[in-house]
Amino acid sequence: MLDEFHRHFSGQPLQMEVTAERALAMTDASLVRGHS
Amino acid sequence: MTADGRRRLPPQRRTVTHRPDIFFMAPPGHLQNWFWHGPSRQRAAELSYEVRLNPRDLPLSSQDWAELIEGVEALLTTWGSPRLDEAIMARNTTLQIVGHVGGSVAGIASEALFGRGIHLCTANPIMAQAVAEWSLMMTLVGLRGLVHYAQVGASAPPRWRPCSTSSTATSPASPCRWK
């Protein structure tokens, strides 16, 4: 993930970014495991 | 390889245009140590990055988190990190990117985060390969009855159940396995 930060702060395209739609469609592990 | 037979290492990238304020939200202890160890520290050093580690145990209130991430430009989250909502980002005007050290980001994403134009990244592309390898390995371990096979030679040897490769109306195909 540090390399992703490096890409961002040096103006290069990100490789692991997710959209809002994709992010919110992922499994919420906190609900599955009962974490707060 | 070099002329004397040593493996040639790739050149290290040292082109750093900015040293962001990076904060890792994992609490002190196992999880923080699990991710923040040799390779991570080495890569941070290569990039001339300093990563501030969360010094406080969980649980923390939204106000506590807000104080911790004030001034942060890049945030590392992981399992157990809080949802990054308005309350937690109340004192932060500098955050540009969030890197989730884990797969799903559903637990940390919020409309407030995307509303501020903050980039959100997941380690899914990297972790997916390990998950696929693990799944294949466990499939073969189960299919070949490795756990039982490893007991061959023990005081009570397992019995082999022959398999059938064709099924009938009353007898479906069954895998070979130890029982």
Q: How much strand content do the residues of chain A show?
A: under 5%
Largest sheet, strands/sense/barrel of chain A: none
CATH architecture name of the domain at 22-126 in chain B? 3-Layer(aba) Sandwich
Biggest protein-protein contact in the assembly: A-B, 27 and 39 residues
Number of strands of chain A: 0
Amount of helix of chain B: 25-40%
Q: What's the tally of helices of chain A?
A: 3
Give a verbal description of the structure.
- The complex is a heterodimer of chains A (36) and B (179).
- Chain A is an all-alpha fold and 36 residues long.
- Chain A has one domain (2-33).
- Chain A has helices at 2-9, 20-25, 29-33.
- Chain A contains three helices and no strands.
- The longest helix of chain A is centred in the first third of the chain and has 8 residues, at 2-9.
- Chain B has a domain at 22-126: Rossmann fold (3-Layer(aba) Sandwich), CATH 3.40.50.
- Chain B is α/β, with parallel strands linked by helices.
- The model of chain B is unreliable at 9-16 (pLDDT under 50).
- Helices cover 28% and strands 13% of the residues of chain B.
- The A-B interface holds A 1-6, 8-11, 14-18, 20, 23-31, 35-36 and B 13, 15-18, 20, 22, 40, 43-44, 47, 49, 51, 59, 74, 76, 79-80, 96-97, 99-101, 103-107, 109, 111, 114, 119-126.
